[in-house]
């Protein structure tokens, strides 16, 4: 039997239904106080049988579903509330949090925008905490930093304050604000946010010291982690990479290989450990072992442009130039913004059949991406001088492998990567400009006797799509229009 609408009910029946609604609401609230959440849910559902438009009942059911991490069901009830009260800013904010937990960032953005528009006082810590996470997920680091900092200004005792300090520590590390990053991590060292432990914070502290090139302090921080967890795969990986660096006081390729081998024993699925092991073997000119390690890395992450650049360097060193060209081409298709790949492409053109014009074009692109690199400047000067009638260069160029730390830092500080389609279009344009498809393959020599490394066909990662069609179209608008209301409390 259908429930009568309010306009169809007599005053006495309306009063009775209102009393029943209030009674079930009170029973639900009492059950919640007793932490009997199933009974509370039943009571609130009974409330809706008496009044399907009861905003308090819908709100409590949505909150219970959200607390149980039943986010799609919570979204359903929050949307029912908004069908009744479209201007309810608090519900828009709660809806945004649910979409954020469902990884639907576009809808989360829209909901937060509506919350800020409808709230009479948008200085709500939980709301800005969610907005901070949203910006963080999009790698819009400056906006995330300001949102998280605003939460701490609004409520220094915010329930997730230590989590915010951890997130700020990561953001500052990515922005190369090392002192601020260390301050955040050291502040929460004794009370890290769950499920993190003190060991996890020491790992982050070690990584910051590593970026500061304070290698001894970094090593000591990592060793503190190993004293608690001797098989910590990531720490073993970092120690291996530290020992690989020639400018550390404890540089030793055998030690580096030992650490990386132990890391892979703890976690053989980590493509980065396989890749770093290949770099160590390259330093020892053990090309077969380097090939095997790179192959394992590519099998696990075939869309990493850094891997393909290093594979190109390997092929170049063993004079398999056609395979080197293929590897560099793959790296550029995946990311046309890595200067080392363009520089290495230039060295390949210069070494093979003396394709000077193509080499200059590639070096020029590398210089645009890394204008302060002295090796690129020197090579461009030598080739242009030779073209102008000066003495030819007699020194063979040496390819550069990717500077991992410089690449990570720059990638982290510029915000979301370009849309996938834009990368493809730009890389195709560069191929046309620099003549990669028109290269003189005969001059590159024979292909490898064994099968070259092939990029496996992998489905796009969720984050690739996220930065494509689903990137919020007005992220900066959300920030600009509403952050001023928060900064007023500074």
From TrEMBL:
InterPro entries: Corepressor-Demethylase, TPR-like_helical_dom_sf, TPR_rpt. GO terms for molecular function: chromatin DNA binding; RNA polymerase II cis-regulatory region sequence-specific DNA binding. This is TPR-like protein. GO terms for biological process: negative regulation of transcription by RNA polymerase II. It comes from Basidiobolus meristosporus CBS 931.73. Gene3D superfamilies: Tetratricopeptide repeat domain (1.25.40.10). Belongs to the CYC8/SSN6 family. Its main location: nucleus. Signal peptide: none annotated. One of its GO terms (cellular component) is nucleus. Transmembrane segments: none annotated. PROSITE patterns: TPR (PS50005), TPR_REGION (PS50293). TPR repeats lie at residues 21-54, 55-88, 89-122, 125-158, 162-195, 199-232, 271-304, 305-338. It is found in: Nucleus. Keywords: Nucleus, Repeat, Repressor, TPR repeat, Transcription, Transcription regulation.
């Amino acid at each position: 039997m259908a429930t009568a609408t309010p306009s169809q009910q007599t005053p006495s029946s309306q009063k009775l239904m209102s009393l029943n609604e209030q009674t079930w609401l009170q029973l639900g609230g009492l059950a919640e106080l007793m932490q009997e959440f199933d009974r509370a849910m039943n009571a609130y559902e009974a409330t809706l049988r008496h009044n399907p438009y009861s905003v308090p009942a819908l709100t409590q059911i949505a909150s219970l579903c959200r607390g149980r991490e039943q986010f799609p069901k919570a979204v359903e009830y929050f949307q029912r509330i908004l069908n009744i009260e479209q201007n309810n800013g608090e519900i828009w904010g709660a809806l945004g949090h649910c979409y954020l937990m469902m990884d639907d960032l576009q809808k989360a953005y829209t909901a937060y925008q509506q919350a800020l528009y409808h709230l009479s006082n948008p200085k709500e810590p939980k709301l800005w905490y969610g907005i901070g996470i949203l910006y963080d997920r999009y790698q819009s680091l400056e906006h995330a930093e300001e949102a998280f900092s605003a939460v701490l200004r609004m409520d220094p005792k915010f329930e997730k304050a230590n989590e915010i300090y951890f997130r700020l520590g990561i953001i500052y590390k990515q922005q190369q604000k090392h002192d601020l990053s260390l301050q955040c991590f050291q502040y929460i060292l004794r009370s890290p946010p769950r499920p993190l432990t003190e060991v996890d914070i020491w790992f982050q502290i070690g990584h910051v010291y590593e970026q500061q090139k304070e290698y001894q302090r970094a090593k000591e921080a990592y060793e503190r982690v190993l004293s608690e967890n001797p098989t910590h795969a990531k720490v073993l990986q970092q120690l291996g990479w530290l020992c690989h660096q020639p400018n550390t006081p404890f540089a030793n390729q055998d030690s580096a290989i030992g650490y990386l081998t132990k890391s892979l024993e703890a976690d053989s699925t980590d493509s980065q450990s396989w890749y770093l092991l290949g770099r160590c073997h390259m330093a020892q000119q053990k090309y077969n072992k380097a090939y095997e390690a790179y192959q394992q890395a590519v099998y696990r992450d075939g869309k990493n442009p850094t891997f393909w650049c290093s594979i190109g360097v390997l092929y170049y060193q063993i004079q398999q130039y056609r395979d080197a060209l293929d590897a560099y081409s793959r790296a550029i298709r995946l990311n046309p913004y890595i200067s080392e790949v363009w520089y290495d492409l230039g060295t390949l053109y210069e070494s093979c059949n003396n394709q000077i014009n193509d080499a200059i074009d590639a070096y020029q692109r590398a210089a645009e991406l890394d204008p302060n690199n002295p090796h690129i400047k020197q090579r461009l000067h030598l080739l242009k001088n030779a073209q102008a009638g000066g003495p030819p260069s007699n020194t063979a160029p040496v390819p550069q492998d990717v500077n991992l730390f410089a690449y990570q830092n720059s990638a982290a500080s510029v915000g979301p990567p370009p849309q996938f389609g834009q990368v493809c279009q730009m890389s195709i344009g560069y191929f046309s400009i620099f003549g990669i498809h028109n290269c003189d393959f005969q001059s590159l020599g024979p292909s490898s006797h064994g099968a070259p490394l092939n990029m496996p066909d992998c489905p796009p990662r969720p984050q690739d799509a996220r930065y494509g069609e689903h990137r919020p179209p007005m992220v900066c608008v959300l920030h600009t229009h509403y952050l001023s209301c928060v900064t007023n409390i500074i």
